[in-house]
Amino acid sequence: MTENTTWHPHRWAALFPLLLAVFMDMLDNQIVAVALPSIQHEQQASGSALEWIASGYTLAYALLLITGGRLGDRYSTRAVFLYGTLGFTLASLLAGLSPAVGVLIGARIVQGVFAGLMVPQVLAVIQTEFPHEERGKAFAMFGATFPLGGAAGPLLGGLLTQADIAGLGWRSIFLVNLPIGLIALGCSAAFLPRRAGQPGVRIDRLGVVLLALPLFAVLYPLVEGWSIGWPIWTILLMLAAIPLAGLFVYQQSKRRTDPLIGLGMLRRREMSAGLPIAILFTASMGTFVVLTMHLQNGLHYSPLQTALTFLPITLGIVAGNGSSAALIRKLGKNLIPVGLIAGLLGTAALCFVLSSTGEQLHSWELIPGAVLLGYGLGTVMSSVLTVILAGVPAEEAGSASGVVNTAMQLGPTSGIALLGTVFFAGGANASATITAFLVAAGLLLVALLLAPLLPGRAGADSHEGERVDPVHHG
What we know:
Blueprint: E1 2-3, H1 11-31, H2 36-43, H3 47-75, H4 77-96, H5 101-118, H6 120-129, H7 132-163, H8 172-175, H9 177-191, H10 205-228, H11 232-254, H12 263-267, H13 269-283, H14 287-298, H15 303-309, H16 311-331, H17 335-357, H18 367-388, H19 397-425, H20 430-450, E2 466-467
Antiparallel strand pairs: 1-2
Helix pairs in contact: 1-6, 1-7, 1-9, 3-4, 3-5, 3-10, 3-19, 4-5, 4-6, 4-9, 6-7, 6-19, 7-15, 7-16, 7-18, 10-11, 10-19, 13-18, 13-19, 13-20, 14-20, 16-18, 17-18, 17-20, 19-20
């Protein structure tokens, strides 16, 4: 590879619609939770139907992420992103107009499929279109978008559901994606570079199937198991993921050209140590779901009041991301344990408040711990992305982006399953909430112990200023 001197001149303008699409994805992932009771009442939906409305999106999304990244490598990130965003927007319209529960479930699955095409292109563009000195800031902005969208989802869901705009009720939580999607489409069509794909890249169809099998074996029981009491088939299916993953690795090692995942990429210390840290740290975010259930079911908070309680976490995330772009250049990989320690301290502070106040809890008492937890999440999210992707060459950007996004999807799904099980098994009360938070602190502690395994300083051992030979920009 040779050093590129023609970075896309409108790269920051191009980043805006990409981040807007990520925000829309995370918003849609979280916004549905507060509207489920309204959907159940209006549509006479069963409990299993509600589970699929919430989880069908997640399952389809996670299964398509790596394939979506590889499609971006072949057909260009611009083309795949535009198709993904258009499909996601149309699926949102279908969800908002759904005449029956079955149509709504199908629309949610289609949303997840197109999100799996749309989201992986974002990291790929950052990796290929931004020079080394700007990439940390771009990663910080990307890292902020995930938790900000996640935090905004319940807040906006509560507002829209209670406002009942034009009598739409719960339907407005899906229709709100229409203006966001159209803005993202218009801006991306105008500013994303017209960089050619790599037609010589072949999509490993067998690899796609063999990868989907272990992912499904893990994600499906994680999505379903905690709400149905973990029957034996869920455990057996997750155990089956181990030999299925081994079969995928064997097939990839034997494929001489265009593997779905370059196994050499996974052997890099940035990936081998960074991905487990990302999974553990995002799994700890399952505390948001547990706290939401405790506040609404145990303390009888309204959806809007619950969402406002989470606002300090959002402010902390903004502060963490805002400072990490500059700090990562000074501290390198050492910024990751700083963020993890902040998250641990914030979790401990929340545990203390929950245990000392009981049912007399006031929202303002959670603010110090919530801000500290948010700061840790914001700091780790952006810095771990910078470290993981530091040594990825441009030609593997799409595949690497899919791997990272899959890990960051597996983390929250696993965390919700684990902490949700702890919460319900403990009686779904204040004591169970504290226990779940302590388990989350344990996840952060393990991530902290793994942090020294990361290589050198972020990007110190890589060639971040290099990329594939220059191509004409649009």
